[in-house]
Amino acid sequence: MRRVTLITTGGTIEKTYDEVSGELANRQSIVRRMLSELRLEDCEVNVVELMSKDSLDMNDADRDRICQMVRIMGAVEERETSGIVILHGTDRLAVSGERLLAEIPSPRVPIVLTGAMRPFEMKNSDALQNLTEALFAAGVLSPGVYCVAHGRALRFPGVRKDPERGTFVKD
Q: How far is CA 87 from the centre of its chain?
C-alpha cells in the first residue's frame, strides 16, 4: 500500500465560485471532493489542510509553514509516507519549490508540487488531471522536489510558469 501525504495550500486548483459576490476565491479546501472522483488502487491519501490562499497572497511565513509541514510529514524523518504532494497556486509554485529545495536539499521521499490553471469547478479544468498525475508521481519518482502538471514531471531547480503556454517549463 502506497501512502501519500497531500498538503493543501489553496490556489486556483481549489477556488470556488461564490454566487452572491460573483468571485472565485479560496474559502476552504475541496480536495476531498476531488479525491472522491478518483479510483486510487493501493493508495492511501492522508490530507493535511494547511492553508487556503491564493499563491499571490503567500509570503515567506507561509512558505516557512509549508516547509515545516513537509518536514513533519516525512520528507526528512522516517514516517509512513511514500511521497508528499502539495496543492499550490501556480503563480508562486516555483518560488515555493525553490524554497523547499533550499530548505530540504536531500528529501527522503519525492515532494511534488502541483496546481491548476483553471479551478476544479470550471469546465475544461486541468485540476483533476494534475492531481491524479501528482499522486501517481509521488509513488514512482525518486526523492527530490518536482513540479508535476500536464503530463510532465520537472525537477527543481529551474522550474517556472510559462503563462503564454499555460504550463510549467524548465529553464
A: 2
* Beta-bridge partners for 170: 159
For the chain, the domain total comes to 1
Between CA 114 and CA 132 the distance in angstroms is: 10
Could you say which DSSP state residue 71 is in?
A: I
> pLDDT tens-digit profile of 103-138?
999 999 999 999 999 888 778 889 999 999 999 999
The answer to whether 85 touches 42, Cβ cutoff 8 Å, is: no
Query: ω into residue 163 within 30 of 0, thus cis?
Result: no
The C-alpha atoms of residue 63 and residue 163 are separated, in whole angstroms, by 22
CATH number for the domain harbouring residue 81: 3.40.50.1170
d(CA 150, CA 162): 12
